[in-house]
Amino acid sequence: MRRGRSALAAAAAVALSCSLLSGSPAEAEPTADSQLRAALAAAPEDLQTPFEQSDGAEWTTHPESLRYYRQLDAASDRVRVTNVGRTVQDRPLQLVAVGAPTPDSRPAAAEGSVAMFVCSVHGDEPSGREACMTLARELAFTTDAALTRFLERTTVLFINANPDGWVADTRENADDVDVNRDYMALETPEARAVTKVIRDWNPDVLNDLHEYGPREYYDTDLLHLWPRNRNVDDQIHQLAQEMSNDYSAAQVTSTGRTAGIYGQLVKDGEPFLQVAGDEQARILRNYAGLVNVVGMLSETANAPLDEAEEEDESLLNRRRVEVNHDSAVGTLQMVMENRDLLAEQTAAAAERHTEAGAEQSGVIYFAGQDDMLPTDSDEVEPEPMCGYQLTGEQFTELRSTLNLHGITTRRHEDGRLVPLAQPTRGLIPLLLDERSEYRIAEATPLQEC
C-alpha cells in the first residue's frame, strides 16, 4: 500500500462537517469554489467537443471522442492517453491521465495524490463523459498558477467505462450487463478495467458520474451519495460524506442550482422515503469505500426540470453536462484543500483494516447501511473470522478476480487461505461468505489461521 504508517492521533483529530452548503453567488463574495470554476473556464478552447460545437444540440459520438482525446494528447504534454482494456465488442477502454508538466508514471502517482473520474458507465447517460472531456481539456490548457501547482502534485484520471453501451445508447454493456453491478464478480471487461485502475493507481478520491430520471419529490439538478456499506472504514466514510455534501453538492448549489441525496424522496424539505442508494458492494461508490478510496456518486436529472428546458433540448443537455462538470470540480476542490489529509487517511484506513483483521476485532456486516442497522442475526458477525479457506478448485477459478481486487492469499492445507489481515478486510467476507447476497464463492470461514 502507498505511503508509510500515518499517525493514528491525526485520525482522532479529524473533525468533519456533513452539512449541505447553500446560498447564491450573488449574496456573497467570490469563494474558492467560484474562483476554481472561473480559472477552469478561462482555459483556451481551441479544441472543442462536437457537443460544445453544436451548443448542446448533438452529443459527442464514441469515434469522435477517440479522435478528441488523441488530439488532446498531441496538443498538451500534460495529457497521456492509454488503453487499459477492450470491451466485449473490442473497443478500447481509454484511460486519460492529466498532470504537470507531464502526468506522473503509474507507480509515482500511486505513491502520491490521484483523483479519478468514471465517466458514464451507463451508455445512455452521456453528460458524464461530456463533462470529463471538457474538464480534461481545461486542466490540459489552463494557465492558472494554482491549477498548475495542483497538477504538479495530483494526477487526474478519466475513464470512459462503457463504450459499447455508448454506441448502442443502452444502460448495459454489449452482453446486457449493468457494469455498475459488477464490481464484485468482475465478469465484464469494463468492470475489470476500472477495478484494475483503482488497484494500480491507488486513487485518493473517486467521483462516478451518472444521470437519473426525475419525478415527483425527486427532481433536483444533482443527486449525490457516498458509500453506505457498513464495512467501510469510519474515516473514509466521513471524508466521502464531506466530499459529497460540502464540495461536490456545494459546488452545484453555489451556481443557484439544487442538490439532494440520491435515493431519498423529499417533500417540504424533509426526506420521507428511500427508493435507492443502498449498501451493495457491487456498486462502485460502495466498492470504492471498501477498498479505502474516498468515493461518491453524482447523478444529474436527464429530463426537463422547468419550462425553458422543455422548450429547448439544447438547454436541457447543457445543464446536464454543467451539473456533472460542477460536481467534478467540487471533487477537485476537495483534493486541493485536503490533499495531505486524504493521503494520510486512505493509508491509515488500510492499516486499520489490516490490524482489525489480525486481531479479529470489530464487527463484519453482511447487510444494513450507514443509516440502517441489520435486523437479522445472519446479517452480522460479531466474532469475526481470521480468514477464509478456498479449495484448490475455487482458487483456480477465482485467482484472477481476487488479484484484481488486490486481495492476497497464501498456501493453506489443501487449498488457499484468504486472510482478513489485509487492507481489503471489509470486502473479503462480502465476496466469500455464504451470508453475503452477492458472494462470488462460498468459502470456509476460519477462526484460527
TrEMBL record:
Tell me a GO biological process for this protein.
Answer: proteolysis
Question: Does the record bear Protease in its keywords?
Answer: yes
Q: Which InterPro entries match?
A: Peptidase_M14 (IPR000834)
Family membership: Belongs to the peptidase M14 family.
Query: From which source organism is this entry?
Result: Auraticoccus cholistanensis
Q: What is the lineage of its organism?
A: Bacteria, Bacillati, Actinomycetota, Actinomycetes, Propionibacteriales
Q: Identify the keywords attached in UniProt to this record, alphabetized.
A: Carboxypeptidase, Hydrolase, Protease, Signal
> Where would I find the Peptidase M14 domain in this sequence?
58-297
Q: Extract the SUPFAM superfamilies matched here.
A: Zn-dependent exopeptidases
Q: Which PROSITE patterns match?
A: PEPTIDASE_M14, PROKAR_LIPOPROTEIN
Show the GO MF annotations.
metallocarboxypeptidase activity; zinc ion binding
Q: What is this protein called?
A: Carboxypeptidase
Q: Note the coiled coil stretches, chain numbering.
A: none
